[in-house]
Amino acid sequence: MAKRKSTIKKLAKEAASNGNGNGSSIRSRLAVQKTYKLYIGGAFPRTESGRYYKLLNNENTLIANMCLGSRKDFRNAVVAARGAQGKWASRTAYNRSQILYRIAEMLEERSEQFEDTLTALGNSTKEARMEVNTTIDRAVHYAGWADKYQQIFSAVNPVASAHFNFSVLEPMGVVAIFAPEKQGLLGLASAIFPAICSGNSVVVLASTKEATAAINFAEVLHTSDLPGGVVNILTGSRSELLDHFATHKDVNAFVYYGNNKADKKAIQELAADNLKRSVFLPQNNLYDDYHESPYRILATTETKTTWHPIAQDMTGGGGAY
To answer: Average pLDDT, whole number, for the chain?
Structure first.
């Protein structure tokens, strides 16, 4: 025991002496730079292409090297999304609500980190704090809608026959999304939450200019009980991936945030091949109430109508059984 204590004291003395010689500082070390990867199927793979792009802030200072996602990365993400979608949709609405609320909890715990990330991208401290707080509130908002929107938008329809006629909403399936280029955290969350709220799985191309916020957000999703594959996040070039997003036959809807008329026209023409729904949303004020409307959930759902016969009694009168 005495020998062990002597060894520990010796090591402590050596560590202290590696500073300025008087034990008042600790030896400096190299910073551990973060490697920003993609988020596919609940894992963080590097892009299969091996390519990257330089992410710069407003002062052209290098912030990080980001993966330049490829067609193969997108296809892998769609496979993961399709594999996860059925089980996610079969969960109770209340359970999906709980998970969305858990995302809000995790965002709250890491709010300072996200504020630092957004500040590094060129936002003021006030802007960063506002964006993070609004993102947290938006997660809570859609957590509340997850088990309520059906009650508002479903219906019992009047029909001129001896039937009950019900209309209910169902998720479309796999939704591909081009997230807003501005406000990389809030824009990404505003695109994802209404889509997964109803049971869809998504493949999202994050903001090119604010991609670090997106991958940090992926880490929140990864630790918030959300099943792997429900949300898949890519980074890269819109122009390179637009055709692949619009033409993939196992994608049921394409949500596009942007104002580029040529992009919109190309999406409409390419998506028509498999009757993919195209949803175009302007890159307007993300703090607007529109982005917390339950109608945002409807954009990636479809209506299923069921007819149920009503038994007729012997006298000819109607009666349900």
So the answer is: 89
